[in-house]
Design a protein that fits this description.
The protein is 46% helix and 17% strand. The chain is of the alpha/beta class. The chain folds into two domains: 129 residues, no CATH class; 141 residues, Rossmann fold (3-Layer(aba) Sandwich). The strands form two sheets. Strands 3-2-1-4-5-9-8 form a seven-stranded mixed beta sheet, with helices on both faces. α5 links the parallel β4 and β5. It is globular, with a radius of gyration of 22 Å. The two termini are 41 Å apart. The relative contact order is 0.13.
């Protein structure tokens, strides 16, 4: 992100903090009354007071996350005081101009909620596939199985931060190659230096398998597609900053007691994130080594044979 766009976020800071203050006061009043009622009700039931307190904190933490999203932004519009800003600022800067220029059919692999849909305003079709069903998922796919997509039916494929959670990465690349038209383009981003993202949630078990260096992602994608461009994402500042912020946040959000602490220190947490992000942004500008990147952005193209057919079609 350039200096001008970074400074544009400043007006949002004052508006965000004003919103946070008013929303927090109103919400705490409502939740306090509900908590008092639940505590009284619990006295005549088998539900323990500790359980009621944990439920109250969990609900309050959900409200805290919604308020945080209003202030710090949601993907793909995270602001410089979001704890994940350092991990996405370069992805946004490289993807935005390319996605807004796409005008054919686009397949979004690992789409989830299709966060990049607003950037695909010129695309003819935007079809999403994922391993879990959802409101924005057009087709559910299975790891290692042929996708329910017609061969040679898409001009572009978008695959952002997905390969690390795919058990059979070569199969995914084979399917991307199959569904692309000859000469079609794949836009791929992968993490390199980032914490393990394995979780168990409402969408099932999410396992983190791989990390890809600049050379590693070229090796796996280059089996079937022609590499057009490879860009390391971030530098020493981004890599160190995002790991520090993730470690603090994940440590504090692990228990009810530390969640309360995290909620109480929200204004300080936003300021701390902004400070770390600013330092990371500046250090990235000073880092000329090119070896302390946290991710990789790659553009690949499906080869075209002499007759106009794909050179790698099966």
């Amino acid at each position: 992100m350039d200096d001008a766009r970074y400074l544009e976020f400043w007006p949002d800071w004052e508006a965000g903090m004003a919103f946070f203050a008013s929303a927090t006061l109103a919400a705490l009043g409502v939740l306090a009354r509900r908590f008092a009622w639940r505590t009284e009700s619990a006295a005549g039931t088998s539900t323990s007071l500790g359980s009621v307190v944990r439920q109250f904190i969990d609900r309050l933490f959900l409200l805290h996350e919604r308020v945080y999203d209003q202030i710090a932004g949601v993907h793909p519009h995270r602001r410089p005081w979001h704890l994940q800003w350092l991990s996405v600022k370069d992805i946004y800067s490289h993807l935005h101009p390319r996605l807004t220029a796409l005008d054919g059919d686009v397949l979004d692999v690992g789409c989830f909620r299709k966060p990049f849909a607003p950037w695909l305003k010129h695309a003819r079709r935007h079809i999403g596939v994922d391993v879990w069903p959802g409101e924005f998922v057009d087709h559910v796919i299975r790891d290692g199985e042929r996708w329910p997509i017609e061969t040679g039916s898409f001009e572009s494929v978008l695959c952002t931060q997905v390969l690390q959670v795919v058990r059979d990465v070569p199969h995914l690349i084979d399917e991307v190659d199959r569904i692309l038209v000859p000469g079609g383009t794949a836009l791929i981003t992968v993490p390199f230096c980032y914490n393990d993202q394995s979780t168990r949630g409402e969408r099932g078990i999410y396992r983190d398998y791989w990390r890809f260096s600049v050379h590693g992602v070229q090796e796996v994608v280059g089996r079937r597609l022609t590499i057009q461009e490879v860009i390391p994402l971030g530098g020493a500042g981004s890599t160190g900053g995002v790991l520090v912020l993730n470690w603090i946040y994940l440590s504090l959000s692990g228990t009810s007691a530390t969640r309360v602490l995290l909620m109480l220190m929200l204004p300080l947490w936003l300021l701390f994130c902004w400070a770390v992000n600013t330092i990371g942004w500046l250090v990235d500008k000073l880092d000329r080594t090119g070896i302390f990147y946290h991710g990789v952005f790659l553009v690949a193209r499906k080869p075209v044979g002499p007759s106009g057919d794909s050179a790698s079609a099966v």
